[in-house]
Write a structure and sequence with these properties.
single chain, mainly alpha, 82% helix
């Protein structure tokens, strides 16, 4: 269910996509897009799709009404941080806001997913779990076969591309900051996949759907910090700190043209969010 819940983060992610004319259109089509994404994991029957459509509406209304205004507050934080020397703590605080938004979506989305889970046949549930196992194998083949050098190179490229999406082309000094950060990261793919495998085992037991399984799912989500290994948390904390520090340094070296591009992105996000909020109030 956690993997299915991640698809529901589409709501927040679309609201934070690079500003473009299609952002509001895509967001307004989430009731169509979410079932379309779910078909990668389970084929729904017509009656199940109709049930999903009914269950999605309160969730989407909640997200537009309560979450989108909070995203505007995060943009305010970003604007305030950019007015002076950006600190690592400011970057970390903004990242924490996004994390909290993610957690709220997971908690809220779980309820309609439980309703849908009650309606899946044993065959559909078996297919869903088979797809999760297959995806785990694909992840292991893709990530664990990399050398340490390949891991660092991909980490650097991901960082560089993400920053350039917002600031435009980086100069050599800014790239060097990100290269150093990538080299300082602790390798996380194996420990992440181990955690995911353990989560999948627990999920498969819960989705036998014995009496009380719905509350077991809620409890599992609420206690996720208790079931995450200390080793994984340490790697996550280390890597997050490295990345936050690098982002702050790059932001503090931005040129005038990079400043204009970054501010333009944030302004586009704000316009999209305000449009979506207004549509919901109409």
């Amino acid at each position: 269910m956690k993997l299915m819940a991640r698809l529901l983060a589409l709501g927040s992610l679309l609201a934070l996509l690079p500003g473009c004319s299609s952002t509001t259109f895509l967001y307004n089509r989430l009731d169509f897009l979410i079932p379309w994404y779910l078909r990668d994991y389970v084929d729904l029957e017509r009656s199940q799709k109709q049930l999903l459509d009914v269950e999605l509406q309160p969730f989407l209304e909640w997200h537009r009404r309560e979450e989108l205004p909070l995203y505007l507050r995060i943009l305010d934080q970003m604007d305030a941080a950019l007015e002076g020397e950006v600190t690592t703590q400011q970057v970390a605080d903004i990242a924490a806001e996004f994390q909290q938004a993610w957690l709220r979506i997971e908690l809220r989305a779980l309820e309609w997913m439980l309703v849908l889970g009650e309606e899946l046949s044993d065959e559909q549930m078996a297919d869903f779990l088979d797809n999760l196992r297959e995806q785990q194998e694909e992840y292991e083949e893709e990530y664990l076969t990399r050398t340490d050098e390949e891991y660092v190179e991909e980490a650097y490229e991901n960082l560089r591309d993400a920053v350039q999406d917002y600031m435009g082309r980086l100069d050599w000094g800014q790239r060097a900051i990100l290269e150093t950060a990538a080299e300082s990261l602790q390798r996380s793919d194996s420990i992440w996949l181990e955690e995911r495998g353990l989560w999948q085992q627990r999920l498969e037991l819960t989705l036998q759907r014995e009496e009380g399984w719905q509350q077991a799912m809620r409890d599992s989500l609420a206690r996720r910090d208790e079931t995450t290994s200390e080793a994984y948390l340490q790697v996550f904390k280390h890597n997050s700190t490295i990345i936050f520090e690098a982002l702050a340094r790059v932001l503090n070296t931005r040129s005038d043209s990079q400043e204009r591009k970054l501010r333009g992105k944030l302004d586009s996000f704000r316009d999209d969010l305000e449009t979506l909020i207004a549509q919901g109030q109409g």
